[in-house]
Write the structure tokens for this entry.
Amino acid sequence: MRVDRLWLTDFRSYASAELQLAPGLTAVVGANGEGKTNLVEAIVFLATLGSFRGAPNDALVRLGAHQAVVRAEGERDGRALLIEAELAAGGRSRVLVNRQRLARTRDLLGALRVTVFAPDDLELVKGGPAERRRYLDDLLVAVDPRHDRTRSDLDRVLRQRNALLKQVGGRLDPDAAATLDVWDTRLATAGAALGRARRELVANLAPLLGSAYDAVASEAAEVHIVHASEWLDQGYAEVLAEGRAADVRRGLTLIGPHRDDVELSIGPMPARTHVSQGEQRSLAFALRMAGHTLVTAEVGSPPVLVLDDVFSELDSGRSDSLLEALPIGQTILTTAGRLPPGARPQLTVRVAGGDLTTDSPGVPPVGTA
Ligand SMILES: Nc1ncnc2c1ncn2[C@@H]1O[C@H](COP(=O)(O)OP(=O)(O)OP(=O)(O)O)[C@@H](O)[C@H]1O
Ligand SMILES: [Mg+2]
């Protein structure tokens, strides 16, 4: 999987830009605020139709423009890949893959896979359970895009069930009870599918996480990852039936996959509350690395790797070990400072004043904005 060329129109700070990427490592360098992350965000947008920074889609359209267009040419499984995405300022998007309009934007998932490392990843360890659920579910989708369906089915049924619970105001009449039965059956099916998939994923991640941590941390440690679920072992249908009275009273579904967590610890210390900031950061890296390694093994080729401004947080020894430990594929790294000593970019793109210039023997500069 590879992106060879990228075109942006009215995406973030770029009115118009064209960028060539190396098959191996491309370094994007420039001062703060020049538009480095905007470039990699465009690549990630083609994979997910969203911003990895958690920004709403309309933030991706250049201020004052009515739509953004991102186009990429590359290769997947030995065949040419062309992805074209338009995003209206209102947030609606339209995508073509190899000039075919996609019936559902979900069909895009899997056309291009990207793993992103970003400074915000620290939240995977320090933040709330929702961050860690999203980490698991995004990995499930990267391995098999059909999981996106399970996830959205679950979200929908949960919303419907919660709306009903709220509406009945604490008292369940027979009609409402019958409707609740229907939601419960659907919720139990979707919930169980997602719960089992998450548990299996965590079991597969555990050994990878251990070796990833050892590769980025200064010393080896015993890292544990556990899928914490209050309902999976008992069975969701039974748990929903048992909890119905409480749910009706509270007007909310109290137990389920939407409350799962991923417990992380280093030795006996819970990572969220007991370990140092440096250890938390190494663990966050290790989570991304383990995920990337797992997807690479499951899919058969490495996703495009985006390392957005991650080396500023690591000393040069750890930066080099991180680079060495990652599966070899296309990598794009951005930095406002120096490159790790072990990084040998095939292409260096300099971003300044909205212009892109490429340094590489024999490759002409290709960008303006
Ligand atoms: N929708 C938008 N329209 C126009 N400009 C935007 C839009 N969104 C962001 N920008 C501009 O893009 C700039 C930020 O770009 P970006 O985040 O890519 O910087 P960076 O090079 O990654 O910086 P750093 O090194 O600080 O991470 C901001 O200065 C902002 O003015
Ligand atoms: Mg940035």
